[in-house]
Amino acid sequence: MKSFLTLLAALLALCALGFLLGSYESDVYRKLLLWIALGLSFNFLFGISGQVAFSHFVFLGFGAYWVAISLVHWDLPLAVAIASGLLVAAVAAAMIAIPSTRLEGPYLALATLALGQLFLLGIASGRDLTGGDSGLGGYSLPPILGFTVKGPWYTACIVLMLGLTYVILDRLDRSSFGRACRAIRDNQTAAQAMGINAPRTKVIAFTITSVLASLAGIFYAFVDNLVAPGAFSLESMFILLFMVIVGGTGRQLGAIIGVVVLYMAPFFIEPLIGHYHFMAFGALVVILIIYKPNGLVSMFDPILKRRRMAALEKAQL
Amino acid sequence: MQDFFELIVSGFASGCLYSLMGLSFLLVMRPTGVVNFAVGQYAMLGGFAAVAVMTTILIPPIALPYVPGLLVVLALMALLGAAVEWIAVKPLVDRGAPPVASMLSLLGVLIVLLEVGARFGGTEALPTEPPFGFRRVEFGPFAGTPQSLFTIAVTLVIFAAVWLFFERTLWGRAFEAVSLDRRAAQLMGVNLRLVTVSAFASSAVVAGLVGVLISGTTGAYYQVGMALTVQGFTALVVGGVGRVDGALLGGVLLGLLEALVMRYLPVSSSMTLAVPLVVLLAFLVLRPHGLLANRGGH
Amino acid sequence: MIAAPLLSVRGLTKRFGGLLAVDELDFDLSAGEVLAVIGPNGAGKSTTFGLVCGAIQRSAGEIILKGARLDGLPPHEVARRGVFRTFQHNMAFKGMSLVDNVLIGAHRRFKGSLFGVVAGFGADTERAERQRAIELARFVGLGDWLDADIATLSFGQGRLLEIARALAGEPKVLLLDEPGAGLTPSESVRLFAIIKEIAARGVAVLLIEHDMHFLMPLADRVVVLNFGRKIAEGTPAEIRADPEVVEAYLGNIAKDSTGAGAAHAAG
Lengths: 317, 298, 267
What we know:
Distance between the termini of chain A: 22 Å
Oligomer: heterotrimer
Mean pLDDT of chain A: 92
Structural class of chain B: mainly alpha
Radius of gyration of chain A: 20 Å
Largest sheet of chain B: 2 strands, antiparallel
Number of domains of chain A: 2
């Protein structure tokens, strides 16, 4: 109950912040929230399930393009566009996962990377359907139940989506399913000997996280009312991977910290060092993997542990 | 028909480049188990280094002739490879971290190298003159540029040398022993440090050579790295991962396929980029052990 | 031993290329019984474990658990039917807490769907299983280490953790691959008591062990393997008196004097 109230308070605060920001800050803020949602689902896929997959932005892009194309070309109602998008994403993710999760580390990485490149090539050569390199625009969020949702109210919708993503992943993480994912990541042979169906578990983890990425993509489509291939490039995928590593692989809080730090960093360091932030991220990742493999979040561990011990003592009294 | 034979030669030549990229992966994978996706960036940097050292572009006062220039570039690449190992891999191996940790840290290196290349060489493709001129060499029905023939010859020499090294020399045996069992190899007196550093250095040299060869045809460009990484890895997967002969076969087949698709299929030129991607996915799903897997191997 | 066998192995054979790793192996195992598999290195003991657990696919033969075929099933299905194992090398889940490690063994008892999980059900099962896992960790002597980082556990503690993890699955058959190797004397005494206790609760225990001093008073029966073949089977006393066994295995141990109980076993 206490954790539920904490979450509710956090979401309300995030919504409230949306009402205080100007239009430029609002745009930055919404994208930050979307990055956090992506970071959380990618952390489950990569950090908890242990699958080094570069396909996360494919599913983000899929969700965004699907909803945009549904509105522009197919004139579908919004609810139908969203529901069908998530359904198709789930089927596609499962179909991709069934052969590819059999692949080990580097092979999965390169297979999903190839998939991402093919996705971009497909969009670029999609002519009118996808708008090619310049992207697809000229649509806007249709009224929902008669209300036109815009400005901070749309930001609140994104916060809601982020909250949903967080709750789903947090509950999965704390369940026997999340534990099974970690066990497979740490030692697949031992996990299977303890009764865990490793291929099935990996496919489910891949599918759920990919659908969540597509959900974020659907919300992304109405941030600029434009979807263009540049947003789903390999560079973005690398940054997402780096965010999770920097924050703390395998921990929800770590993913949030990593996304916030790396997303905000360019705004602060660009005036100092110019356009070198991507290079700096690469160097930071090497340094952290070597000297702080548990990420920035591990700096808070002593505090968290002390609090847990205090709570334990209190409970025993 | 003559057109077809010319196509075969040029496809074979670009296939050789993919084979060399595959070899670059393999030189590190075999003894250490680490997959280094940054090899494509070595090639990109090798190309820029060639332009810098051999022409008056980038570094105007230095313009060495081809052979000394090539040697300087390859020496630089060896240093780079050893430095990457020392900075990004050794601390992890010392700590006993799994190979995937090295793979991730090398992804960080990949981005650093990519950005360094883009700052140093710029984001425009640098056109360079082919070192052997624009002539056309004919032999029987075949014909090709001197650059193509040079590429093919160099590749065959390198693969022959690598094969001899692994099969016939004590040092090559040391590499093999390390690939089979690191602890046992160490107990047998193999110097693990030396093997690992030479593996990373030679991998960078081979990839750097690819960059030099490419700069002589299509010029040096900061974005060639990722494409070459995919093409090299595809060559490995097609031929059969872990095999030197597999890398050669896979690369050449991929190069020929690309050339044929580009010439005879009615697709836009950007879609030829899809060829290695589709081949890679098809092989990983349908035949993950590659073409040579059934003839012994591991 | 009067009851019908729980686990029956018939004609079990494994070829690696031209090499016969396990050759026409037969044995039975009853509930509550401790059966030891001994033999020199490379005799096929660990391969036999892999075959029974489904980690290695057999070339021929049958593995039957309570009348149902086990062979051909993937490892997780074998575990779900109640056959659990520990490993010769340390196979703990390094990124997880000690209690979570033990809880993995109980995985097959978490029945709820993922939708149920997301909706917030299953907290009671989780709490109950967690409590049981803590009790199991205490049972194997790791009660003071519940909060410890897995990486800081000693080799012997890692062994005990694996036993707790396997026990969490409430196995019908428990396979222990050299559980005593690398244990301190006090850990070894505890392990002996633990295995006795497990068998007394009706679990069938299959055991690979080199230390004859440890094994002889523990095992009800012993199967001796050499080059993949069963060369003897019987009570510990019969095995110790068998000249072929002494020739193939026990004699060597006495000569190498590898185990503490080697002289005792051979003499």
